[in-house]
């Protein structure tokens, strides 16, 4: 196939139950088959699946929506409850489960990441050479489709499409492959059979993006450089993706009401066959066992083919254990801020001026103060400014203070405007803390943090005639501190496999400028009639494609590296100090962040291009990992799609050769892991170990020095973790193990927790 494929799975989505939709008598189910039982009389597994279904049930032949080849052993079908029960009685059927539904997790970043002009001499090649090599790398983006007319998808000066590419652009009423695809956008498909069955379909079935999310993520990963990009005057400059010369293939799996697992799995299946090198999914569905997670299944099959898979961690922070996409063969990406901001100000009638953020671009309010109201009552939705909750008689002509939460931030502004309000202050609560996210509101609006919000709430409650004037400060850069971990970014610990530390890294995910659809305005609201070529969005959906694009650059620089080697390079070179040289902060309250929030740290692509050492893992390592879990042999074989044994079973999932450590102390106070490092730096490299550990744990590493005589040499080391006696089971701690020499620092974060026994 040539270069291994990389799938960029950056559609961050929350899991919903299909009962939320208008449901027919039949529902979509994913059926997992024991493919080894296929009789030799059948030429293909698909023929056997269809006949087997009809033999056991009354299902019509067209009940089968998809048959999976590369990503999964089985099929998706429209089935009644009775048909499901009949299938479950068959020895050839391993599992039948209802199709899960997901929703999306929802200019300056190249410079912020050190990719603005030139690479450091230590990398060994120029940015121009790297861009040239990246033309052979193909990024597959599973999302809401693509707006192909965007300048971000220009193929100017690009060479011919790699001959190994097997994909295509699919035609639709509003999508002409001859016009809309080129040497940059080389694939555009859509998958809707699962969604179409149970949801009322009111969209054109097409690769075209009517939402904006998919265009934004695709251009973030690999958009061409576009000069004079801006959102209504904000963030003006040159917009570009991470891998400007990489190819893009988009797979539309998300529609207005969600993204079905059967469609996602079909898209991964197709992308593997098409020949992508990176998969980017900004979607997810919470944490589920790998045997019931279509994304985990598909990502494993992609990894086996050499495809790097990047997924968003989710937007359910700051709650603990809120992660999605935690399989160890997936790069799980959290979100942080960049050093650009969009200041706005609320000046109260008492003279106090408070800072916030905004992307409002209209005429503004002028300098005259306006009455400020905050409508708070028992069991009243008015303080959240929900639809229909505001009385026009109370808010007309006034600025309304709205609490953040429940409904979308931009929707609150629309509610205020429709009720006659002239402005809004959007105030954080404890759930979002001090995190500030800028939005392109339909009326003058300023977002403020919890502390400022509380002071403004108190002002309104204690002042007889409270007033305010809102003003807007445009765009500023070199903001400090940055990066800061976004409060919305989902957190560990990992509930599926506590011995695997997640998320893996954080990347830019707050107030990100990228290409946009022309079907909707920048807020995405139907009543927003503004049109813009670019929009600014926030979410782990935005951070995921950054990492997908960086993975494409690493694949271009090191085509022989496995997906786990690329992941290791990005993780072990990540940084944990911000631009004030202080430990990374958490936006919820600006306390020090932990690896449960930022993983290994914030990605540093220049260092990742030359990491020195990598923690590599092959499919056999992941099989040994799966064997250490409480899965049957049939379950394991279903994931890996072949007959395997557990002869090499790990005694503990934490034995996987992973670039980080998550140590769970149970009955024993002693945990011991061995790791294997591969030299991708210079021959004759010598490294010494450095350990940072909490006072509750003693960490011993043997040997303390590693010598790599040749490039490609592998060396092992063993770490013994000893917990102090009498530690509270609710306690946790963090640290790191770093292998150092004059050229490199190969850092692995450590997280410690205690289970109740």
UniProtKB/TrEMBL annotation:
Residues 28-105 form the Inhibitor I9 domain. The keyword Protease applies. Residues 135-577 form the Peptidase S8/S53 domain. Residues 655-751 form the Subtilisin-like protease fibronectin type-III domain. GO terms for biological process: proteolysis; system development. Belongs to the peptidase S8 family. This is Subtilisin-like protease SBT1.8.
């Amino acid at each position: 196939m040539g270069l291994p494929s990389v799938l960029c799975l950056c559609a961050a989505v929350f899991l919903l139950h299909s009962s939320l939709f208008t449901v027919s008598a039949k529902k979509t189910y994913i059926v997992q088959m024991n493919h080894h039982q296929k009789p030799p009389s059948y030429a293909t597994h698909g023929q056997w699946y269809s006949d087997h279904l009809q033999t056991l049930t009354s299902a019509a032949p067209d009940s089968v929506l998809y048959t999976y080849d590369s990503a999964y052993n089985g099929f998706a079908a429209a089935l009644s409850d009775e048909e499901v029960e009949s299938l479950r009685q068959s020895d050839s059927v391993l599992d039948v489960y209802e199709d899960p539904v997901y929703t999306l997790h929802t200019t300056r970043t190249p410079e912020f990441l050190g990719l603005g002009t030139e690479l450091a001499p230590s990398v060994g090649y120029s940015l121009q050479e790297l861009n040239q090599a990246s033309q052979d790398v193909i990024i597959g983006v599973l999302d809401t489709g693509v707006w192909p007319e965007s300048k971000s998808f220009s193929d100017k000066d690009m060479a011919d499409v790699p001959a190994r590419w097997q994909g295509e652009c699919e035609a639709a009423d509003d999508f002409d492959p001859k016009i809309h695809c080129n040497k940059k956008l080389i694939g555009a498909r859509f998958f809707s059979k699962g969604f179409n069955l149970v949801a009322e379909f009111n969209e054109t079935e097409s690769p075209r993006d009517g939402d904006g999310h998919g265009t934004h993520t695709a251009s973030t990963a690999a958009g061409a450089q576009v000069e004079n990009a801006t959102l209504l005057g904000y963030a003006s400059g040159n917009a570009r993706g991470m891998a400007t010369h990489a190819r893009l293939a988009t797979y539309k799996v998300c529609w207005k009401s969600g993204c079905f697992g059967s469609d996602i799995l079909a898209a991964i299946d197709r992308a593997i066959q098409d020949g992508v090198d990176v998969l980017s999914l900004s979607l997810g569905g919470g944490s589920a066992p790998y045997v019931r997670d279509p994304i985990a299944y598909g990502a494993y099959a992609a990894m086996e083919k050499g495809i790097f898979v990047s997924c968003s961690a989710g937007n359910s922070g700051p709650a603990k254990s809120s992660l999605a996409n935690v399989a160890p063969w997936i790069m799980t990406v959290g979100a942080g801020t960049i050093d650009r901001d969009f200041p706005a100000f609320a000046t109260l009638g008492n003279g106090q001026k408070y800072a916030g953020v905004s992307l409002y671009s209209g005429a503004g309010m002028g300098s005259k103060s306006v009455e400020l109201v905050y409508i708070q009552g028992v069991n009243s939705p008015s303080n959240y400014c929900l639809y229909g909750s505001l009385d026009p008689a109370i808010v007309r002509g006034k600025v309304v203070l709205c609490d953040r939460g429940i409904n979308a931030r931009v929707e609150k502004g629309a509610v205020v405007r429709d009720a006659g309000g002239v402005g809004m202050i959007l105030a954080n609560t404890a759930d979002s803390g001090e995190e500030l996210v800028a939005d392109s509101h339909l009326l003058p609006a300023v977002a403020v943090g919890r502390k400022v919000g509380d002071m403004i709430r108190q002002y309104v409650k204690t002042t007889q005639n409270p007033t305010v004037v809102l003003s807007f400060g445009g765009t500023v850069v070199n903001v400090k501190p940055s990066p800061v971990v976004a409060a919305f970014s989902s957190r560990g610990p990992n509930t599926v496999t506590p011995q695997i530390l997640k998320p893996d890294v954080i990347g830019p995910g707050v107030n990100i400028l990228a290409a946009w659809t022309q079907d909707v305005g920048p807020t995405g609201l139907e009543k927003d009639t503004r049109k813009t070529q670019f929009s600014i969005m926030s979410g782990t959906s935005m951070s995921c494609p950054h990492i997908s694009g960086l993975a494409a650059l690493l694949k271009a620089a090191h085509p022989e590296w496995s997906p786990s080697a690329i992941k290791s390079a990005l993780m072990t070179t990540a940084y944990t100090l911000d631009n004030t040289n202080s430990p990374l902060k958490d936006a919820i309250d600006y306390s020090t962040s932990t690896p449960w929030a930022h993983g290994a740290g914030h990605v540093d692509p220049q260092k990742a291009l030359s990491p020195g050492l990598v923690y590599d893992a092959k499919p056999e390592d992941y099989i040994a990992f799966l064997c250490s879990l409480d899965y049957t042999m049939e379950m394991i074989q279903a994931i890996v799609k072949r007959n395997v044994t557990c002869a090499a079973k790990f005694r503990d999932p934490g034995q996987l050769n992973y670039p980080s450590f998550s140590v769970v102390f149970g009955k024993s106070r002693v945990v011991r892991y061995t790791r294997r490092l591969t030299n991708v730096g210079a021959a004759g490299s010598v490294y010494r170990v450095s350990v940072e550990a909490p006072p509750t744990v003693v960490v011993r590493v043997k040997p303390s020095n590693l010598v790599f005589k040749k490039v490609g040499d592998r060396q092992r080391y063993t770490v013994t973790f000893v917990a102090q006696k009498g530690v509270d089971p609710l306690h946790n701690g963090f640290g790191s193990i770093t292998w150092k020499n004059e050229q490199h620092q190969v850092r692995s974060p450590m997280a410690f927790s205690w289970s109740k026994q």
